[in-house]
Every structure is written in C-alpha cells, then in structure tokens.
Design brief:
This protein folds into three domains: 90 residues, Ubiquitin-like (UB roll) (Roll), CATH 3.10.20; 97 residues, Beta Barrel (Elongation Factor Tu (Ef-tu), domain 3); 114 residues, Nucleotide-binding domain of ferredoxin-NADP reductase (FNR) module (Rossmann fold), CATH 3.40.50. It is built from seven helices and 18 strands. The strands form four sheets. The chain has a six-stranded antiparallel beta sheet with strand order 11-10-13-8-9-12, covered by helices on one side. The protein is globular and about 65 Å long. The protein binds FE2/S2 (inorganic) cluster. FE2/S2 (inorganic) cluster (FES) binds next to loops.
C-alpha cells in the first residue's frame, strides 16, 4: 500500500510505501525534516497529525506526555501511515536549523576512480545518522591531527551513507593517512555539517551548475537532492577539466542526461567554460547559478557571470581547497 503524506506548513508532499517509517520516507524524498536519533529516543521527530491515521511500528523509549498524545503528536521515526496523512512537522529551512554533530563513522569502501581521485564511502551508525543540507561540508579525521574539510558528495536523502571525492595528490595529512594507512572498517570521525552552498528550492528558476574538478562533489549532492525533490526546473551541468579522463564520474552524468528530460550535461575540456555556458544560456536573469571549484576559478567565473548580467542573489559559490 502507498500512502500520500503532506507536511504543513511547508506543503511538501511525498509517498510512503508499505510499512516504512514516515521519517525515512520523508528524508528519502529530499525533505529536511527535524530528527535526531531516528530510533525513538530523542523526541526530535515529534509531529502532530492533522488528518489521517498512523500506526506505531516499534516501541520507543521517548515518552510523549499525556497532553501531547491528546493533541495527536507522534514520533515520525516510529510510526507509519495507514491512510493518507497530513502532519504538522518541523523542517530545516536554513543551515542554522541543523545542529553540529560529531559521529564516529566506518569506512565502507575506498574506490580508486582515476589515478587522481579516490571516492571514500563511509557509513554512520544506524542510530546516529548525519543530518545535513545538500551542498554542505564536514570535517573528516582519522585521528586528532588529521581534520580536513570536504564537501559531502552524496544526497541528504541517504543520511547513513556519505561519499567524499578525495584528490590523491593532496599533501593534507588526512589524505596521506587515508591513502597509506586506512582500510575498510576503520573509524573516521565526521564533524559538521557546515557551509552555505545550498540549494535555492523556493526559486523554481532553471539551475546552472558549473563544476571545476572536484568541485563536482558538492554539485553532485545538490543535483541528487533536486532529483529526490523531483523539481521540474531545468538543470544544466557544465563540468570543467583539463582532460576527459579527469571527469571521473562522466558516465554517471551521462546516465542522468539519458534518464531525465530536464537534465543537460556539458563536459567542458579546453574551452572557456563561462563563454560556453553563456552561449547555451544567454538570459541569466531566469537562472540560478551554482559554481564550485578552486578559489581562483570560482571567483573568476563569478565575476564574468555577474558582468554578463547574472543577478548577485542568483549566484551561489563553493570554494574547494
Ligand atoms: S528521531 Fe529521535 S525519536 Fe525520532
């Protein structure tokens, strides 16, 4: 059975299949619902039923007061819907609504994509998942000395499995320790999230993404989040590299273009990326532009785009060390 869930006051909607917890279905659908443990202990996922029926799917240690029960409060992590439901629930609308978290994760896999980039897969404990907004970063450390910031390259809709794109040529202690002394199962401490490179969900303008090298990581998170939200806006990705081989997830980008009517992919090699982007999208007043990459490249690109008429409020930047 599938139930339709609507959240107020945002009016966000999603579908829940079978016995899924309302929280899990909402997070998978890209909503930034309020929660903590996802396990019935903290009470942060408390929500009020406005209409419809839910049922408890497990015992929870957090105790709702009699007053809360009488006012139809439930824990979204511990109940499912048995009919279409309208709920009043808190959602994060900015980075300030998400608490700083410190989580001991495990290395699930270290994948060598090209000789220049590693993809690091880490997994959080089931009862301590990372709440973050698409495009944000965290600090990763293997021990107390190696803390380094990396953008999260995965979608908040999968809050247990976090991905990072690690440049192998970096001399940062974290990267060296990861390459030379780490293996599956080792602990990586994640502290975060932080950063303001966020998706402007309310704008509903076409989205242009300009990624330089591993600037693709936070942009991948934004694009996957937009896909989870099933945004109808057109998305165009311009990924800039010195050589085609450096587009280390070229096949993924091509598969997005094949699967989605509203997604265009433009690999950019040996060409001025901003001029190429302007050729494809002359009218910058109707787009939001997201740029991620080194400080020099992102600032140079942003100056050119602003000079070409992009309104300042429609530009979002992420600089990667
Ligand atoms: S998220 Fe902690 S009780 Fe639901």
């Amino acid at each position: 059975m599938a139930a339709h869930i609507k959240i107020q006051p945002s009016n966000h909607e999603f579908w829940l299949e079978g016995n899924d917890a309302i929280l899990d279905a909402g997070v998978r659908a890209g909503l930034a619902l309020n929660y903590g443990c996802a396990n019935g202990n903290c009470g942060l996922c408390k929500a009020r039923i406005i209409s419809g029926k839910v049922k408890k799917t497990r015992h929870h240690d957090y105790v709702l007061s009699e007053a809360e029960k009488n006012r139809d409060y439930v824990l979204m992590c511990s109940c499912t819907a048995v009919s279409d439901v309208i709920l009043e629930a808190l959602e994060a609308s900015s980075e300030n609504d998400i608490p700083l978290q410190k989580i001991a994760t495990r290395i699930k896999r270290i994948e060598q994509t090209t000789d220049k980039i590693l993809i690091l897969h880490v997994q959080t404990p089931r009862i301590q998942r990372l709440r973050f907004l698409a495009g944000q970063s965290v600090t990763l450390s293997l021990d107390k000395k190696t803390g380094t910031d990396f953008p999260i390259a995965s979608c908040p809709c999968d809050d247990r499995n976090l991905l990072f794109h690690i440049p192998c040529d970096s001399d940062k202690p974290f990267v060296q320790a990861l390459i030379h002394n780490s293996k599956k199962g080792d602990t990586i401490t994640v502290v975060g999230p932080h950063g303001h490179f966020l998706f402007n969900e309310s704008a509903r303008r076409a989205q242009l993404y300009l990624a330089y090298g591993t600037g693709f990581a936070p942009i991948k998170s934004l694009i996957e989040h937009a896909m989870a939200l099933e945004t109808a806006s057109t998305m165009s990705l311009f990924w800039v590299a010195d050589k085609k081989e450096d587009l280390y997830m070229n096949n993924l980008c091509r598969s997005w273009e094949d699967a989605l009517d509203n997604f265009n992919y433009h690999p950019v090699i040996d060409t001025d990326a901003v001029e190429y982007l302007l050729e494809k999208h002359g009218n910058l007043e109707t787009v939001d532009v997201y740029i991620a990459g080194s400080e020099t490249l992102t600032h140079c690109a942003s100056e050119k785009l602003l000079a070409a008429g992009l309104p300042d409020a429609q530009l979002t930047l992420s600089t990667i060390d």
